[in-house]
Design goal:
The protein is mainly alpha-helical. The chain is globular, with a radius of gyration of 16 Å. It has a two-stranded parallel ribbon. The protein is built from eight helices and two strands.
């Protein structure tokens, strides 16, 4: 989505105002951007989605699309679990390093509210389907990578 914004595409121009506020971009816009890319990636060996889906509606639509298209296989959903204070610290550091205008204290607080209301329900959705993998996201990058790799290898075995 940020690439769309930086390239000032039609989708990016619309999405920019939502991202600036810390709100989720409307589902129809997200699907317009994602659908063709996911289908192409599935045909070319697979894909990893980061930050999608973010709402239960998006998850249900994506699941339906995958169910209706044998090229798309949902293998795992990785949830990097981290505490609120750890996440606040990381976002503060990112704001300082990348100078992102949406990483203000108010913006971050709003994103936590949006996560609780819109994204948290996805955990149950994917857990019911047996594809949710939870990983301790407060470990070192190397440890997180090892845990993700082990989990995915376990699913493929």
């Amino acid at each position: 989505m940020r690439a769309e914004v930086s390239q000032a595409t039609r989708i990016g121009k619309i999405a920019a105002e939502y991202l600036e506020r810390g709100d989720l971009v409307p589902d129809d816009l997200v699907f317009e951007m994602m659908s063709a890319r996911v289908l192409e990636a599935a045909r070319n060996g697979g894909y990893v989605l980061d930050g999608f889906p973010r709402t239960l509606h998006q998850a249900e639509e994506a699941y339906s699309l995958a169910h209706d298209n044998e090229e798309i296989i949902l293998q795992a959903v990785i949830y990097l679990r981290a505490g609120v204070e750890e996440l606040r610290n990381r976002l503060r550091a990112r704001a300082h390093q990348e100078r992102r205008s949406d990483d203000t204290e108010v913006g971050v607080a709003h994103r936590f509210e949006v996560f609780d209301a819109e994204t948290q329900p996805l955990l149950g959705f994917y857990a019911k389907r047996g594809i949710l993998v939870e990983v301790d996201g407060e470990q070192s990058v190397e440890e997180v990578f090892v845990d993700i790799t082990k989990a995915i290898d376990g699913l493929c075995a």
